[in-house]
Each structure stands twice: as structure tokens, then as C-alpha cells.
Amino acid sequence: FLVSNGTAKYHTLDGNSTMGNSTECDPKTFNDTKLDCVLAGYETNKNLNRMAVYHFFGWLWMMNFVIALGECVLAGAFASWYFAFHKPDDVPALPVLSALGRTLRYHTGSLAFGAAIIAVVQFVRAILEYVDHKLKESNQDNGFVKFVMKCMKCCMWCLEKCLRFLNKNAYIGIAIYGKNFCKAAKDAFFLLLRNALRVAAVNGVTAFLLFIGKLFVVGIIGVGSFFWFDRFVNEVEDVQLSYSVVPIVICIIGAWVVAAIFFDVYDMAIDTIFFCFLEDSERNDGSAEKPYYMSENLRDILGK
After folding, report:
1. Angstrom distance (rounded) from CA 270 to CA 274
2. 134 and 21 co-located in one domain
3. 54 and 112 share a domain?
4. Helix (H) or strand (E) holding 21
5. What is the pTM of this model?
6. DSSP 89-109
7. Is residue 146 located within the same domain as residue 39?
8. Coil, strand, or helix at residue 258?
9. What's the rounded Cα separation, in Å, for the pair 185 and 183?
10. So where does this one cross the membrane (predicted)?
11. Are residues 105 and 15 located together in one domain of the fold?
């Protein structure tokens, strides 16, 4: 399909199945009885590559916007629970739908801007991969070039990770206070900077526990699928599988994907509640005039 988007080129063909004088012809007006006017190929459309690049960037932007929308909606739902003074009586009904409505009505521009930043970084990373591939094809990837390319790839990878972390907390700030992206990102950055040790501790413990949870789920599914396909199906159902390892691997991969999706929700909940806790601790002191919004269990744990 992409090739046929170019301009069709027709050439004359004689009776011996060889190109005549390689002259171009138009099949609509060609009337030579000794030669045939046949399709020789397609001339590449110069705009095709530009459109491919345009759509690729649009795909990156759209994917990051969907991720940002999900994070902002979840942050709004979890924050509405945290800042409910009398839990659970003050928690709004249908918090996820309420957060979705607020996000779509007020914050789509901020989410699109944040998604565009990540998309630009990912686009640059794709360009670096393309350049690296072309250098390898032309045998110009000497030691120095490889070193420079690896350094640039590493820097862009680190930049994307840092921006994703900052964007995630910016979306939490947007969901809580309704600020624009730049204001929310700046406030989130300085809030996390003032509590750097807490952030490092919580993120480290959270990442470890969520990873253990994913491994546990995948392990259970893997063991269960092994006994199902290798023992139960072959012995009880009397069905012979030539390669039982294939469905087992598919089940394990599917379990990892599903577990990652579900645990991402828990990860967002932890980040949002932690962000709300930091805001609550800085804005309130537990007095009658400025009471804490955190739950009693959280106060007992933190000694507030």
C-alpha cells in the first residue's frame, strides 16, 4: 500500500519481453501495436516519508496523552478520598467518573502539553536509533561513534525517565488544585525536592514491593499453567500437546502484562496519597484551625 502511493511509471515492452528503448508511455493514449505499455514501477512520493514521520510523532503524542489522562483521573479519584475530612462520609459518589469529568472539562490542554514534552523526547530517541542503524549499515560505526551514540541514547533515556516522574507528579498537582501544567510541575518539583529523602525511601520501597507482587502473580500463573498444560491436559483430558512450553510461556507473558497494568493503579495510588500527605504536612499543623486531612491510621503511623 505504501509503495503504491507513489506515481505509477509505465514503459514500452516489445514482443520479446524486453524493454524497448526504456521510453515512458501513457497507457491511456498508447496505441503502438508492436509494443506494449506495461507498469514498470512506482516513483517514490516525496511526501510519503514526511507523512510517516508526522504520523509517528502523532502516535507518540496520542499514546502519552492517553497515559496522562489515566494518571490524572486516578490522581483525582485518590485525592478526593484523601482530602475528605470525614472518611468515608465526605468521599464523593463515583469518584473516578467525577475525576474523569473534571479532567476532560478543565485539564485536557495541560495533559496534551505534558504528553507533547514526552513525545518530543521519545521522537529524538527514535531519531538516534535511526541514525545508529544507518551508521551500522554504512560501516561507519567506529569505536568513537559507538561511544557517542551510546552516551546520547543514555542521556535521552535518563531525560525521559526524569520527565515522566515529574509529569506524573505534575498531573497529581493538576488533579488536586486545578493548576496549569507549568505551575503544577514547578510546585511538584520543589515539593519533592524539599522532601527528597522521603521521596527516595517511598519510591524505593514501593518499586520493590510492586515488583515482588508482579513476580508472585506471574509465578502463580506460571505454575498453574504448567500443571494444567503438562499434567492435566495430557493425562486427564487425553489431549497430546507437542510443545506444552509454548502456551505456558504465553500465559506467563499475559500474566505479566495484566499484573503490570493492575499494579500501576496501586503505584499511582501510592504516589498520589504520598503527594497529598506532603501537601497536608506542609499546609496544616494538626491544630483546630489547621487540622490534618490524613486518616487516623496514617497519623498513628507517622506520629502526627
Report:
1. 6
2. no
3. yes
4. strand 19-24
5. 0.80
6. TTSPSSHHHHHHHHHHHHSHH
7. no
8. helix
9. 5
10. 56-84, 104-128, 200-229, 241-263
11. no
Given a contact cutoff of 8 angstroms between Cβ atoms, the answer to whether 227 and 244 are in contact is no
Which residue do the cell numbers 503490570 mark?
260
Tally of domains in the chain: 2
Range of the domain at 29: 6-44
Domain assignment of residue 1, yes or no: no
Residue 261 domain-assigned (yes or no): yes
Instruction: Report the candidate in 253, 250, 251, 247 with the shortest Cα–Cα distance to residue 233.
Output: 247
Give the ranges where 92-195 is alpha helix by DSSP (H): 95-106, 108-137, 143-177, 181-194
Q: Which amino acid is at 208?
A: F
In our burial notation (b when 16+ CB lie closer than 10 A, e otherwise), range 86-122 reads eeeeeeeeebeeebbebbeeebeebbbbbbbbbbbbb
Contacts of 25 (CB under 8 A, 6+ apart): 10, 11, 12, 35, 37
Output the tens digit of pLDDT for each of the chain's 304 residues: 455 566 777 777 765 655 545 677 777 777 777 777 777 777 766 777 788 889 999 999 999 999 999 999 999 999 998 888 877 777 888 889 999 999 999 999 999 999 999 999 999 999 999 988 888 888 777 788 888 889 999 999 999 999 999 999 999 999 999 889 999 999 999 999 998 998 999 889 999 999 999 999 999 998 888 887 776 665 655 566 667 788 888 999 999 999 999 999 999 999 999 999 989 888 887 777 888 887 777 777 666 6
Cis before 92 (ω within 30): no
Compute the Cα dihedral for 263, 265, 270, 275 and give only its sign: positive
